[in-house]
Amino acid sequence: PRARRNAHKGLGCILVAMANKFKLNIDSRVERLAEIAEFVEDAAQACGFSADAAYELQMAVDEACANVIEHAYAGKPGGKIEIACEKRGDEFVVVIKDHGKRFDPRRVAPPKTDAPLSKRDVGGLGIFFMYKLMDRVNFDFSRGQNVLTMVKKIR
Fold it and tell me: What does the CA dihedral 129, 131, 134, 135 come to, rounded to 10 degrees?
């Protein structure tokens, strides 16, 4: 396995990559979203995704992690986010874990995507985009942590 600590940023990030398995442990700061996007892009391309498909994965993971930072950790730094990406056969599986406030997707109203912009609520599109960009999305809360699993077929 290859492990790299981004000590040069002084932010306590640990990246581990093993044959088609990639892990990133990162703290809950908005400034870290670019690093998360780079991690997902590298993992996706290493597993055979085109640049366009890798971008879709980045968008879904970015939305998920932004939601973790904003809602699970209430925008406070210091929370931990664990991201694991893995190629399983013809699928790319992303698992995002956090120990923040419990999340229940059933309590989120679906966005009014057919309404005029002036009638739409601000925000609320993150989960919508995750479902649109990924083939499967599953939210779970167990053992005191939120676990989001997203799957995209490698085409």
Answer: -160
